[in-house]
Amino acid sequence: MKIAMVGSGYVGLVSGACFADFGHDVVCIDKDPAKIDSLRGGIMPIYEPGLAELVSSNVRAGRLSFTTDLAEGIAGAAAIFIAVGTPSRRGDGHADLSFVYAVAEEIGQKLANDAVVVTKSTVPVGTGDEVERILKAANLPVRVAVASNPEFLREGAAIGDFKRPDRIVIGTEDDWARQVMTEVYRPLFLNKAPLLFTSRRSSELIKYAANAFLAVKITFINEMADLCEKVGADVQDVARGIGMDGRIGPKFLHAGPGYGGSCFPKDTLALLKTAEDYEAPTRIVEAVVKVNDARKRAMGRKVIEALGGLDAARGKKAALLGLTFKPNTDDMRDSPSIAIAQALTDAGVAVTAYDPEGMELAHPLMPEVTMCDSAYAAIAGADATVIVTEWDAFRALDLARVKAAMNAPVLVDLRNVYDPAEVRAKGFAYTSIGRP
Ligand code: UGA
Question: In what order do the strands lie in the sheet with 350-354?
Answer without folding.
Answer: 370-371, 350-354, 317-321, 384-387, 410-413, 429-431
